[in-house]
Amino acid sequence: MxxxxxxxxxxxxxxxxxxxxxxxxxxxxxxEVDLGVSIKYEPFKSNEDYLNIATEKFESWTIENEMKxxxxxxxxxxxxxSKADEIVDYAKKNNLNVRGHTLVWGSSVPDWVKEKAVDSDxxxxxxxxxxxxxxxxxxxxxxxxDVVNEAWEDDGSxxxxxxxxxxxxxxxxxxxxxxxxxxxNAKLVYNDFNNQIINKKSKQMLKTLVGYKKDNIPxxxxxxxxxxxxxxxxxxxxxxxxxxxxxxxxxxxxxITEMDVNMKKIPDKExxxxxxxxxxxxxxxxxxxxxxxxxxxxxxxxxxxxxxxDKNATPLLFNYEGEKKDVYERxxxxxxxxx
Length: 339
Ligand code: G3I
Description:
Elements: H1 2-29, E1 34-39, H2 41-46, H3 48-56, E2 60-63, H4 69-72, H5 82-93, E3 97-105, H6 111-116, H7 120-137, E4 144-149, H8 162-167, H9 171-182, E5 187-192, H10 200-214, E6 221-224, E7 227-229, H11 237-249, E8 253-262, H12 273-287, E9 291-296, H13 326-336
Parallel strand pairs: 1-2, 1-9, 2-3, 3-4, 4-5, 5-6, 6-8, 7-8, 8-9
Helix pairs in contact: 7-9, 11-12, 12-13
Bound molecules: ligand G3I.
C-alpha cells in the first residue's frame, strides 16, 4: 500500500513538473530579444544613411571603440568623454538601449598606464579610478557594461595582460565590485569570444565566474561575442543551446554582444550559409530564458572590423551599399516573434 502511494505521488510530482516546464517554455517564446548594433564614431558623424539604418533598424547601440581605455582615458589625469557622449546622448534621445564597451581589456591599455602601473597597489589604484570615473560619468545612461573583456586564452589559462601580471586574477572580481559601486543599476557583463560552446576556455571561465558569484561578486551576465566563420565545420546550434542552458543554470544572464559571420571564401549572394547561421543563433537566443539581446558588430559591411583588413569581407546584415540583406528580415522575425 505505502509503495502504491509513493508511486502515485512520484507520478503526480512528475506531471506537475512537466506542466510547469511547458508553462515556462511558453513564456520564453514570448520573450523580447533586442537586436543591437555597434556604432563607429566617424560614420555616425558623417554618413546619414549609416545613421538612419542604425537608428531605425536596431534597438540597442554598443559604442564600438570610443569607450575603450586608450580612447577615453588617454592621459593620467585626462578623460576624453566627448565622442562617446555624442553617441550615447543621440541613442538616449532615440529611445535606444546603450551598451558600454569595455572597461577592462588588455588590448586597450594607454601608454601612460604602462609607465605608472608598476606593482599591484599602483595598478589597482589606476584601474579603480578608471572604472569609477567612466561608469560614474555614464551612470543612468549606459544600461549594461562589458566590464572585463577577454580574460582567458583558448587553453583555459589567464590572458597575460598588464592587470593580470600586476594584480593577478583578482583584477576580475575587483573590477566588477568597483563598477557596481559606481552604478548600482547597470547590468554588469563578462565578455569573451569562443565561449558560446563548451570548451577548455569556457569551462575555466564559467567555473571561475560561478565561484565569484558565490562570493557575491556582482556579475550579472556573460557576453558571447559570437564572431563566427561560415567555413567553420564545427558550428552547431545544439552545442550553443547546451552552453546557454549551462550558463543559465548558474544564474547568469546572456547577451550576444559582437556577432558577425565571416564569409571569407563563400560569396553570400550564392549561398544561404550566412543567413542560416545568423538565424540559428537568433533561434537559440530566443529559446533561452537567459538570453536577452543579440548585437551585431557593425552596421554594414563597409564598417566591419573585418573589412578594415579585407575589402571583400561581407560579415554583417547590410551590404557595402547599405542595402538590407535577406538575413536581416529573417533574423528580426525570429527575435520579435510572439505567439
Ligand atoms: O580612431 C582612429 C582614427 O583616428 C585613425 O585615423 C585610424 C587610422 O587607422 O585609426 C582609428 O582607430 C582605429 C579604431 O578601430 C577605430 O576605427 C584603430 O586603428 C583600430 O585598431 C580599431 O580597431 C578596433 C579593434 O577592436 C581594436 O580596438 C575595431 O574597430 C573594433 O571592431 C574591434 O572590436 C573588438 C572588440 O572591441 C572586442 N572583441 C573583438 C573585436 C574585434 O577585434
